[in-house]
Amino acid sequence: MNYGLISVVVMVLIIVYFFVQFERKERNVKLVALIATIAGVAGLLRLPFAALPNIQPTTVIVMISGYIFGPSAGFMIGAIAALVSNSFLGHGPWTPWQMLAWGLAGYTTGFFKGSKVLDSPLVFALLAFVWGFLFDYIMNLWHWLFFVYPLTLKTFIATYAASFYFDLMHAVGNFVFAYIFGKDLIKTFKRFSKRLTYRWEEKGE
């Protein structure tokens, strides 16, 4: 049984579920356009750092998007950012996994929407540091399912241990980007959010 291919199908189904749920409830056309724009920028900003070992600002931008615009928007931006960047860097069975990983980074950070806890540069940087590892742990699982044989606890631990320094680079890069640029980006995204605020009222028949 090819667990790698099965996992890709599962990832695609999960992503489709999130997209459908967003489409059903989101009526703010301006927000949809903004999501597409931010996702495109987040994906493209990955390209200049492609030569560096697992360092890029995409994760931080996705997390800020979730924090300001909420879980669903955060997931959409993360998933689309992966799709956009891989259009230049190359698609493959890893793409759905990256879409889910970045989507979850935005989605989970979205639960802090409305609070001010991540306004602290240090707190946000620490969370970004953690998500550097979480993102790569998800991707390590993809690598283990696709390329490692046999699938045992021993090979599972070895796969994660072998990628530690690569994962650490992602986490450290996230911390630096979040600590230096996070506060200003959060303020900018908040201004966009205020411009998008509106009240929806259903008309009676």
- In the CATH hierarchy, the third-tier topology is known as Arp2/3 complex 21 kDa subunit ARPC3
Query: How many discrete structural domains?
Result: 1
Low-confidence segments, given as residue ranges, are 198-205
Q: State the helicity in percent bands.
A: over 70%
CATH class: Mainly Alpha
CATH architecture: Orthogonal Bundle
Overall morphology: globular
Beta strand count: 0
Give the rounded overall mean pLDDT: 90
Strand content: under 5%
What is the CA-based Rg, rounded?
A: 18 Å
What order do the helices and strands follow?
Answer: HHHHHHHH
Enumerate how many helices there are, as a single number: 8
Largest sheet: none
Task: Describe the structure concisely.
76% of the residues lie in helices and 0% in strands. The chain has 205 residues and is an all-alpha fold.
Describe the structure.
The chain has 205 residues and is mostly helical. It has one domain: Arp2/3 complex 21 kDa subunit ARPC3. It is built from 8 helices and no strands. It has helices at residues 3-25, 29-44, 58-69, 71-89, 94-109, 121-147, 153-162, 164-196. The longest helix has 33 residues, at 164-196. The model is unreliable at 198-205 (pLDDT under 50).
